[in-house]
Amino acid sequence: MIRHGEKPLSGNKLNEQGKNRSEMLVGYFKKDELVNRFGPPVAFYAAAPAKKKGSVRSIETVEPSAKALSLKVDKSYSKDDVSEIVDEIMHTRAYQGKTVVISWEHKMIPYLAEEFGATDAPDHWKSSNFNETWILTFSKKGKVSFTKEKQPKVPFDCIDIIKDKVTDVGTRIRRVFGL
């Protein structure tokens, strides 16, 4: 399970660093030994926007990886559909013993881990953390073990980040003063 990539101060899409992360994840999901312990991903799930103009960051984060592996991103569930997505993944025979990637909103990832039965997973995901992967491994007897791993660092362009922040501040000022 991963959190969506970096976001601007306002808006429903990834910022430049988030886009860079989504591209970096392609190699990560193809080659990382811990993530690929059971082979490359066979499925990607991403939280669908909860409303018409809701966040598409979870989808944008894994689309390049899914495409590189000739897979589609399942976006059938919104961030609050925790029980439903877990039920589908746990009851899909083709996923047994395989790697399934979930890209989600950070506040809900601990609930996903709990619903999967990971009793040793943290109950909080820090809001500043975009570069971690939570790995759940299921034993044949049904025991769930939790591991977390740092993703590779993502290069970013300071100019793009400054531009995003200036644009976001300008947007907020216009809203406050009705400009």
Any chance you could write out the topology, listing elements then pairs?
Elements: E1 2-3, H1 16-31, E2 41-46, H2 57-68, E3 73-74, H3 82-90, E4 99-104, H4 109-116, E5 132-138, E6 144-150, H5 158-177
Parallel strand pairs: 1-4, 2-3, 2-4
Antiparallel strand pairs: 5-6
Helix pairs in contact: 1-2, 3-4
Question: Concise description?
Answer:
With 179 residues, the protein is α/β, with parallel strands linked by helices. The protein has helices spanning 16-31, 57-68, 82-90, 109-116, 158-177, and strands at residues 2-3, 41-46, 73-74, 99-104, 132-138, 144-150.
Provide a descriptive summary of the structure in words.
- The chain is an alpha/beta fold.
- The chain has one domain: Phosphoglycerate mutase-like (Rossmann fold), CATH 3.40.50.
- It has helices at 16-31, 57-68, 82-90, 109-116, 158-177, and strands spanning 2-3, 41-46, 73-74, 99-104, 132-138, 144-150.
- The strands form two sheets. The protein has a four-stranded parallel beta sheet with strand order 1-4-2-3.
- β5 (132-138) and β6 form a beta hairpin.
- The protein is globular and about 60 Å long.
- The protein starts with a strand and ends with a helix.
- The mean pLDDT is 90.
